[in-house]
Design a protein that fits this description.
Helices cover 62% and strands 5% of the residues. The longest helix is centred in the first third of the chain and has 39 residues.
Length: 559
């Protein structure tokens, strides 16, 4: 009944024009679509390499259905909590008097709570302080992982844009970097895994010192390829000054033009990469139907690709007057995203097989002028997406360090020294205003507002430290772009998308046996899939096996 009243009032506010309705529906769909898609399509072809073709398709379908179901579940749980908080507010003497006096109607109270409730609040309300810590930890892991991946992407893309110099390797050797290299000498033992000139191919340590194979007049030639670029670890640090400047911005509204430019650049990059993949398309002979051993890594990568679970509640809160269309918009957005990322992933894997790169744009002919323009466009898109990914991390970490009673925060915090909402980072709701905190005093502030008494230079140092930490980790993991996504998916995304929604659902509702079994099954899939995915990623980080696949059916003759 209350939702129907809301819809009627919202209809009066937004007007009854069909054009305005269509525009609002389109905006809602666009918000949900953008929440689930970003740069995730770049590593989907590599994800299919981990799973194989048909096992990967089945995995994407399963993860899409689970994500859709759990998104609806988290919204249902939010509405249950809103009803509970409204009832509790009206049962208080102050709330009852406020409604009777006409200062606040029940509808206004409900709207205030709905607009302020976040995923973090739900964790605290349902699970107490552990829930708050778990949600914030997963949000930090997820968002910070994206920040690290952006450093790696820009560094590797810049690296691939430099010219390549080729040196022939013959029986007498070749002079490379002022050193004479011969096929059977120790240089290859240091840079290769097996004996190049036996039936087993040696595997180069990428991205430097790559071997190229060509065949002319029936003779096989081996060439050593040397990039003219600076070392990759230096290129990974190129965006650091720009990211440091972005980190000092405190008003999220200032980033609106930046966000628009990022969206346009990423969309253009997607179209260009798809076009290059389709040009001269042939199915690689190295495509596999399934790969069980590395499928857990695929699970983490795809779960991370559906990155919008953390903003589902704010988006649903914003759909005033159109909440009845939320389910349809969500179905459409997730189906569209799954089709796009799965489609490009399949095309890239079919085209390149086991030679597909961790970033699909690196399988393009990178030294063609159009390809260089595409790479530059992708760099711009990722560059301007970084601050939006960093903001939630900064807001949570600053709250833990500089909030009331925290390590470097003031002992006491009054309303007079709280920063204005526009001066804060502005992504997490402020609980110090006339919102959730007043309705339930047992629910302490779960989102953080930094008092004015905290010196700006202290906050700037913390922000710079976060960015530099991301840069340092990116240097260490500079060849592991796709595995960063798998890591964030294994820990953060599986918890936020699958495990917590089902736990909330079980604790908030009286469920029948079948529904409870279904929720427990999803939790089990999330826990088991996350653990195996984490093991696979950590194994990759520790052992660091080279990622290379030689051409199939190739017989290399000895020189």
């Amino acid at each position: 009944m209350n939702s129907e009243i809301d819809e009627v009032h919202a209809e009066k506010k937004w007007g009854k024009s069909k054009d305005s309705k269509l525009l609002q529906h389109f905006a809602d769909f666009a918000n949900l679509f953008k929440a689930f898609i970003g740069c995730n399509y770049l590593y989907m072809s590599y994800a299919f390499k981990q799973s194989g073709l048909w096992l990967g398709v089945a995995g994407v379908v399963l993860i899409t259905l689970m994500t859709d179901h759990c998104c609806h579940m988290i919204v249902k749980c939010k509405r249950i909590l809103v009803d509970h908080l409204v009832e509790k507010r009206l049962s208080d003497a102050d709330g009852y008097k406020s409604v009777r006096s006409g200062n606040n109607s029940e509808e206004e109270i409900r709207n205030q709570i709905e607009c302020s409730l976040s995923y973090t609040d739900m964790g605290r309300l349902v699970l107490g302080k552990p829930g708050l810590v778990i949600v914030n930890f997963c949000l930090i892991i997820t968002q910070f992982g994206y920040c690290i991946a952006y450093f790696i992407f820009i560094g590797n893309t810049l690296y691939s844009m430099f010219p390549i110099v080729k040196y022939p390797v013959s029986s007498t050797g070749a002079v490379i970097n002022n050193a004479t290299i011969r096929p059977n000498e120790s240089w290859y033992s240091n840079h290769m895994v097996n004996d190049l000139y036996t039936s087993n191919w040696k595997v180069p340590v990428l991205p430097t010192n790559v071997l190229a194979h060509t065949k002319e007049n029936g003779t096989h030639n081996i060439q050593h390829k040397e990039s003219t670029s600076p070392p990759l670890q230096y290129l990974v640090l190129v965006p650091l000054p720009i990211f440091l400047m972005f980190a000092l911005i405190r008003k999220i509204r200032l980033l609106a033009p930046v966000s628009a430019m990022a969206n346009i650049s990423i969309f253009i990059g997607f179209l260009a990469v798809t076009t290059y993949t389709l040009i001269g398309f042939e199915v690689s002979e190295s495509v596999q139907a399934y790969r069980i051993s590395t499928f857990p890594v695929f699970f983490g990568q795809v779960t991370s690709a559906f990155e919008g679970i953390g903003v589902i509640i704010p988006i649903e809160n914003s759909m005033k007057g159109t909440r009845h269309t939320f389910s349809g918009c969500l179905h459409g957005a997730l189906f569209s995203v799954a089709t796009i990322i799965c489609g490009l992933g399949i095309l890239g894997y079919l085209r390149h097989g086991c030679q597909v790169a961790q970033m699909i744009n690196q399988n393009m002919p990178l030294h063609d002028i159009p390809a260089l323009v595409v790479s530059a466009t992708l760099i711009v898109g990722v560059l301007f997406t970084f601050p939006l990914q960093l903001f939630p991390v900064v807001e949570i970490v600053e709250g833990y360090f500089f909030g009331k009673g925290r390590i470097f925060g003031p002992k006491e915090c009054t309303k007079s020294n709280i920063q204005d909402r526009d001066e804060s980072t502005g992504l997490l709701p402020d609980r110090n205003g006339p919102e959730l905190g007043q309705f339930d005093e047992s629910v302490t502030s779960v989102s953080f507002v930094v008092p004015k008494s905290v010196a700006v230079w202290k906050r700037n140092i913390l922000r710079a430290f976060l960015v530099c930490t991301a840069a340092g980790l990116a240097v260490l993991l500079r060849n592991k772009f796709a595995y960063i996504g798998a890591f964030t998916g294994a820990i953060g995304s599986t918890t936020l998308a699958f495990i917590l929604p089902c736990i909330f659902h079980i604790k908030l509702k009286k469920l029948d046996v079948l529904t409870k079994v279904k929720d427990v099954l999803i939790i089990t899939i999330g826990v088991v899939g996350g653990c195996f995915s984490l093991y696979g990623v950590l194994n990759e980080f520790i052992n660091s096996p080279p990622d290379f696949c030689p051409p199939t059916h190739l017989n290399v003759t000895r020189f």
